[in-house]
Design goal:
The complex is a heterodimer.
Chain A: E1 9-13, E2 18-23, E3 32-38, E4 45-50, E5 55-56, E6 61-64, E7 70-75, E8 84-91, E9 104-109
Parallel strand pairs in A: 1-9
Antiparallel strand pairs in A: 2-7, 3-4, 3-8, 5-6, 6-7, 8-9
Chain B: E1 5-7, E2 10-13, E3 19-24, E4 31-38, E5 42-50, E6 53-57, E7 64-68, E8 74-78, E9 87-94, E10 103-104, E11 108-112
Classes of the chains: A mainly beta, B mainly beta.
Chain lengths: ~110, ~110
């Protein structure tokens, strides 16, 4: 699996948008970008994924750069319950190839 | 609630012992994955089964084994336990064998004393 690079931690004010960046400069053409989050010691939770187009669902938006070397996960109105570790993963769509790195610890503050 | 059920939630045992962790996947999911999460290693992929057959192997120790039964539930067996095996063990499931959208259970926390 290609590696991704994420900031170790970020803070965000409650109610504001949280923008979590991820670099995946060695991503190959058939690899998707997946985002998961893990709220303290709970099981990881799937958020969203994309190949090259921007994606949006009820949880978040995913913006992928045209060269696909980086992406941003956007939580439009962060709440305290969004405090978690967010993992950006590039994968060839095979579950066994999901390699979780260190992720970004997002702290949403009141 | 992801629909994936893991038992037991907590387990404390001694070095040298053997334990079995159980996982029931989401209804309709054919693929089951096991991950280990320890403080110093992060989330590590152990093994994947699809419809009863082993599909992929990750960093699973020889002391560990797993299987998926005809009813699709899975068990992870950990033997000759060492202190370093203390970790959270997560099971995940997906509909197909080639899906990056996994649904994780709440984990089984194993403490080896």
């Amino acid at each position: 699996d290609a590696k991704t690079t994420q900031p170790t931690s970020m803070d965000c004010a409650e109610g504001r948008a949280a923008n979590l960046p991820c670099n995946h400069s060695t991503i190959s053409g058939n690899e998707y970008v997946y985002w998961y989050r893990q709220i303290h010691s709970q099981g990881p939770q799937y958020i969203i994924h994309g190949l090259k187009n921007n994606e949006t669902n009820e949880m978040a938006s995913l913006i992928i750069t045209e060269d696909r070397k980086s992406s941003t996960l956007i939580l439009p109105h962060a709440t305290l319950r969004d405090t978690a570790v967010y993992y950006c993963i590039d994968s060839n769509n095979a579950g066994n190839m999901l390699t979780f790195g260190g992720g970004t610890r997002l702290m949403v503050k009141p | 609630d992801s629909g994936v059920t893991q038992t037991p939630k907590h387990l404390i045992t001694a070095t040298g012992q053997r334990v079995t962790l159980r996982c029931s996947p989401r209804s309709g999911d054919l693929s089951v994955y096991w991950y280990q999460q320890s403080l110093d290693q992060g989330l590590q992929f152990l093994i994947q089964y699809y419809n009863g057959e082993e599909r992929a192997k990750g960093n699973i120790l020889e002391r560990f084994s797993a299987q998926q039964f005809p009813d699709l539930h899975s068990e992870l067996n950990l033997s000759s336990l060492e202190l370093g095996d203390s970790a959270l063990y997560f099971c995940a499931s997906s509909v197909t064998a080639l899906s990056g959208e996994l649904f994780f259970g709440e984990g089984s926390r194993l403490t080896v004393l």
